[in-house]
Write a structure and sequence with these properties.
The complex is a heterodimer of chains A (about 325) and B (about 210). With about 325 residues, chain A is mainly α. Chain A is built from eleven helices and no strands. In chain A, α7 packs across α11 and α8 crosses α10. Chain B is α/β, with parallel strands linked by helices. Chain B is built from nine helices and seven strands. Classes of the chains: A mainly alpha (about 325), B alpha/beta (about 210).
């Protein structure tokens, strides 16, 4: 346990040093280029850095709270994400009970199953049981207008916001020989790699970005940002091997998978936003739009990371 | 305000934020403005709670919702929330046998230094139309207090959070948009003022952000 704490402390120190450097840089940029707060890019950058601090502090507190803290934190993230997602759906009065069930039954139950570590049920609860239950509730109301779209939206919302997100705390239940009691570091590894990949794609894109990679989905994403961001995040992941059960090469390979899934997750969620005609999912996090805007890459990488590690490293 | 009322008010505000993550949009109005009369679209019993939640605390303390006595005096819980917590200005909506004139009651509360929240549609809008025709009360109030500033407030999405007849709210993001104030013009007719007020409110609906249907 003390080794876990030492590793967490090392990681937190590194992250804090990075954020302090970013804060100082942001402050200097603001003094020089935007003293009256008129430069939108720099104001946005500083808002992002502030939000990063809040996120790191929250994650730190959750890690100190152990299993309960982590499960609770991600349950709350799921709640906020589901609230954003449901806001943009076609759900109407006939779906009231289906949505109420999604928020107040399915979500708490999924996290309860994560908490009691019932893998056999939490891995199929939403894809099987909720998938069949939700359309039944909506069908019983007899409203058939746009029925398929409505039930598909509710199921998608649950898969994205609850099922996928819940695979982050599920990492705690993996049993890796020689790695007992240190699973929280797997979460740290995943979150750090995903977020560094996001940030570095943004930075590389701003520095070298020329060719747009998906102009119809996300005009700010470039080929240069994508390659630079994924490559550097892979290197960072490999450099974090000491806190994982992986070798350097394995850590790098997993970081590559995480970064790629994160990138494509961002694209998919952009496509949904375009479809619904909004720029951000919400306004909860200053500078970051909504919860889903920050979580999209974690959402897509968490289940894949979980299953890869479970298949090759875990006993259960 | 008594402690129990303050705690109840705080609990209601926290609950409202948890369910709706409500966001204020000040579209041509400033939250620092002094005494005024907020007029809003009415789709849910929670409407004034959302406005109240979004107002900065100094404004919140002097803002009173105007509400129908028939609804808010019906049970002890409603009476506690309506009268004690939100200090509502209760008006008698029953034309036939009322003993007090609603306009006088509102004007009196306004003279006492309070800002007011009114719903000029007079009742909850349960139709598909964005806004029902306005009742004339808001005009008579403007006539009685010609200096009063009327601030339009568009509440978006709350009707989806809590549709009529449902008691479990669905968490969805709501917005409350404040627009530029209007005042009764010199010699402005009732129809002209009501039309102008209604247009000012409708104009805000497009700023509310959420792209739902």
């Amino acid at each position: 346990m003390s080794e876990t704490h030492a590793h967490l402390l090392t990681l937190l120190t590194g992250v804090a040093a990075l954020l302090i450097a970013a804060s100082v840089a942001g402050f200097i940029l603001q003094q020089r280029l935007s003293p009256d707060g008129s430069n939108a890019v720099i104001e946005n950058l500083n808002a992002r850095i502030k939000a990063w601090w809040a996120m790191v502090v929250l994650l730190g507190i959750a890690f100190m709270g152990g299993r309960a803290g982590v499960v609770l934190l991600f349950a709350l993230c799921s709640f906020a994400a589901l609230r954003e997602f449901a806001t943009l759906t076609n759900a109407r009065r006939a779906d009231h009970w289906a949505l109420a069930a999604a928020f107040f039954l399915v979500l708490p139950l999924q996290y309860y199953l994560i908490w009691v570590d019932w893998y056999g049920l939490y891995s199929i609860f939403i894809p099987v049981y909720a998938f069949l239950l939700m359309p039944i509730i909506s069908a019983l109301r007899g409203e058939t207008d746009r029925y398929l779209i409505r039930i598909a939206e509710v199921q998608w919302a649950l898969m994205i916001c609850v099922f996928c997100v819940s695979h982050v705390p599920a990492l705690l239940s993996l049993q890796i020989p020689g790695y007992e009691g240190r699973n929280v570091l797997l979460i740290a590894f995943l979150v750090v790699v995903v977020q560094m990949s996001d940030v570095l794609q943004y930075v590389w894109g701003k520095l070298l970005g020329r060719r747009k990679i998906a102009p119809l989905l996300s005009p700010s994403k470039t080929v240069e940002g994508f390659v630079g961001g994924v490559a550097s995040a892979t290197l960072i992941g490999a450099g974090l091997w000491w806190m994982t059960p992986f070798t350097v090469v394995q850590a790098g390979a997993l970081a590559l998978v995480i970064s790629l899934m994160g990138f494509f997750g961002g694209l998919v969620m952009s496509a949904i936003k375009r479809d619904r005609g909004v720029k951000d999912w919400g306004h909860l996090i200053a500078g970051h739009g909504g919860f889903i805007d920050r979580l999209d890459s974690v959402i897509f990488s968490a289940p894949v990371f979980f299953h890869l590690v479970r298949y090759w490293w875990s006993l259960t | 305000m008594r402690i129990s009322n303050q705690i109840a008010a705080m609990a209601i505000v926290v609950f409202a934020r948890l369910i709706t993550a409500v966001r204020g949009v000040w579209q041509g109005a400033e939250p620092t403005a002094g005494q005024c009369i907020y007029f809003a679209n009415h789709a849910s019993h929670g409407d004034f709670i959302l406005i109240w939640t979004i107002l900065p605390p100094p404004l919140r303390r002097v803002t009173r919702p105007v509400a129908g006595a028939d609804y808010w005096l019906k049970s002890p819980v409603r009476r506690f929330i309506g009268c004690d917590v939100f200090n509502a200005v209760l008006i008698d909506r029953n034309r036939e046998n009322r003993t007090s004139d609603p306009i006088e009651v509102m004007a009196e509360a306004f003279d006492g230094g309070s800002s007011l929240i009114v719903f000029p549609e007079g009742t909850r809008n349960e139709t598909d139309a964005p806004l029902l025709p306005f009742k004339s009360g808001i005009y008579h109030l403007a006539k009685a207090r010609p200096d009063a500033r009327f601030v339009p407030v568009w509440i978006d999405n709350l009707n989806r959070v809590m549709p009529k007849g449902k008691f479990i709210p669905i968490p969805l993001i709501c917005t409350v948009t404040f627009g530029p104030e209007i005042k009764l013009g010199d010699g402005e007719s009732k129809e002209a003022f009501l039309d102008r007020a209604r247009e000012a409110l409708l104009a805000l609906s497009k700023f509310s952000g959420a792209a739902h249907e």
